């Protein structure tokens, strides 16, 4: 917790809230909602907490929604996305497993490179979107939506069991990490208008939380979407 908060303070980023359309007000069942490692940080900075997919998350800080939106488009912002499903896929057949579930060439990803992809059904229909990162530590790091947690996890677990029954070397572990998403960093330096996405295939580099230019021991993967 202290490591994550210190990173936010050191880098000078503004932590933003979830879009209001994705949330509902808290009820008397607030105490049963899960909390991210940044929960106390949100409260200390005036975060208005709401229920989303079984988690207590900030929908707004002291700034207005308009001010927060414009800051993200004109500069960059950090978002607490620790509620999302984070999965570690390991074993020598990890790429085979992932490519059987998603679109895209996972095998071509460089170490610590991630890509936006889609879970699909047997007919090619879209089930959910996700980010797959080929880590330098010898496993795939998968982040998918909290609203599809049970469905996505069951999909991956079923495929793991299927491949294991065929004698394949593959395994799955659900991670419980703090996770921050950085949005629009460097948009101006690339020469594109703030908020515009790249015309190239969505790719990003995964880093670790820590001081600028230095990895923090035990730091968390930090996907950066372009």
TrEMBL record:
The glycine cleavage system is composed of four proteins: P, T, L and H. One of its GO terms (cellular component) is mitochondrion. PANTHER family: AMINOMETHYLTRANSFERASE, AMINOMETHYLTRANSFERASE, MITOCHONDRIAL. Residues 186-226 are annotated as: Disordered. Pfam families: GCV_T (PF01571). Gene3D superfamilies: Probable tRNA modification gtpase trme, domain 1. Coiled coil: none annotated. InterPro entries: GcvT/YgfZ/DmdA (IPR028896), GCVT_N (IPR006222), TrmE/GcvT-like (IPR027266). Residues 38-183 form the GCVT N-terminal domain. This is Aminomethyltransferase, mitochondrial. Residues 186-199 have a biased composition (Low complexity). It comes from the Eukaryota.
